[in-house]
Structure formats: C-alpha cells, structure tokens
Design goal:
Length: 253
C-alpha cells in the first residue's frame, strides 16, 4: 500500500509552472488561475487521503504445489491419461504414477488391455498405439496341440528369471509379476498371456505398473525396453514366430 505522493507533487508542479509562465496576467487570467489553483488544491487534499493497493505475485510453496497436484483427479491428470486404478505421488521435480487395475480381469470384454502412451510396455491389444503394439505369437513351429504349446509357455515364463512369479494360471490365461528392472526400485511389471487355440496363437501384454515423469518431460522415463526384451527372451526359448512386423522398442531415455 502507498499514498499518492506522486500525484500531490504533480499538482503543486502544475500550479507553480503555470504561475511562472504568465508574466503579466490580466484581471480575467488572474481569476482563471485562482480558480484552477483552488481546484488543484482540492485535488491535492483528496489525493493525500487515498491509498492504492499494490498486487504482488508470489511463487507457490512446495506444499502448495503438492496440494494443487493432489487436487487434480488422478484419472484426469496428463501423467495417468488412458490408465486405470492409479495413485500419484508428485513433487516439483518429478511425478510417480502407479496403476493396478489394468489386468484382463478388470475388462468386461475379457480382452487384454492396451498400453497407454503414459506407460512402459507392449501389448497385442495396442493396435491404436504403434509404439506399444507387438504382434501375436504362433506356436505352430513347435506343435499344433494347444495344450502342449501352453505347457511349454508356462515353463518358459517360469525360467525367464528376474524374480518372476506366476500368480494366476488357468488352461488359457497366465498372469505373472516380476520386479521392474528399470527404472529400478519401483514396483512390478505385469505379464499376461492368453491362449487362442482356434487360431493357434498366443496373445500377451507386459507393462510396468509404475511410470516416472521428470519435469519437464511429458512421457515417462523409459524402461529401456525391458518389458519387450523379456518377452523376446521367452519367445526365443520357445522357438515361436511373430505374426507380423516385430516391435523394435523405444529410443526414449
């Protein structure tokens, strides 16, 4: 807050300046000057009682930034776009998003989920996202018996290493988890396989539950293609072939 001292000074300046400019005032000009002086004195008197607010813009504190981020519904936040069942942990330099409701059991149609651009991984269902799509596998190079092929797949997944654990297994569905390799120290990668015996193929999805966003990046820190490489290791062990153009992986940092 400040008083309008500059306005007061300007008014006095106008009074003084006009008096000096008129060397030989006539009676009519003297009356005009007197009236102006009285008006300016009234303005000065009013200005000295007026205060003007000053606005200041301050940077929000770290706590305020965190509160603002937490007030954004997770399903509407850019860092979790296209994902479900997410929890967000954020600070001014990075955001960590963990999503746990993207498995097949959460899909009414019984299909494998796609992979959002805000997640790391690949899926045979990500047909609308070429950078996350990988083609189905055909097991006909090994056998035409779907049961034999499925048993081989279960063994190959169990032998992939990295702390893999099969948490659900049926005659046509497998869900395994493995600690996320990169970025290290996060949660798990979810690996799912679905047998399609009528088509002699296997569908799959391997995605990291947790994504890390470092300001100002708008895409998650890369998993260095660890999900894709793990799937390739399983397929190589089986000797199966891909039914389409191979996914080459991401070149993001």
């Amino acid at each position: 807050m400040f008083k309008a001292s500059s306005l007061v000074a300007l008014c006095y300046y106008l009074i003084t300046a006009e008096s000096f400019q008129i060397q030989q005032p006539s009676s009519s000009s003297s009356s005009s000057i007197k009236n102006r002086r009285e008006m300016l004195h009234q303005i000065v008197a009013a200005a000295t009682t007026v205060t003007f607010p000053t606005a200041t813009l301050a940077e929000p504190s770290t706590q305020q930034q965190q509160q603002q981020a937490q007030n954004i519904p997770t399903n509407k936040a850019p860092t979790s776009a296209g994902r479900r069942g997410c929890q967000t942990d954020t600070n001014p330099s990075r955001t960590v998003v963990t999503c746990t409701q993207e498995l097949r059991k959460y899909n009414p149609d019984g299909r494998l989920s796609s992979v959002s651009a805000t997640a790391n991984g690949v899926s045979t269902s990500a047909v609308r996202n070429p950078s996350r799509f990988s083609p189905p596998w055909s097991y006909l190079t090994e056998t035409s018996d779907s049961k034999v092929a499925w048993n081989s797949l279960v063994k190959a997944v169990s032998a992939v290493g990295g702390g893999v654990e099969i948490v659900e297994l049926t005659d046509e569905y497998l869900h395994a988890t493995v600690p996320t390799e990169f970025p290290a120290g996060l949660t798990y990668d979810d690996i799912e396989f679905v047998l399609r015996p009528d088509d002699n193929i296997v569908l799959y999805r391997s995605v990291s539950r947790t994504s890390v966003f470092v300001y100002p990046l708008t895409q998650p820190v890369s998993d260095k293609n660890s999900n894709l490489k793990r799937l390739e290791k399983i397929r190589d062990r089986l000797g199966w072939v891909e039914m389409g153009l191979a996914q080459t992986g991401s070149e993001r940092i």
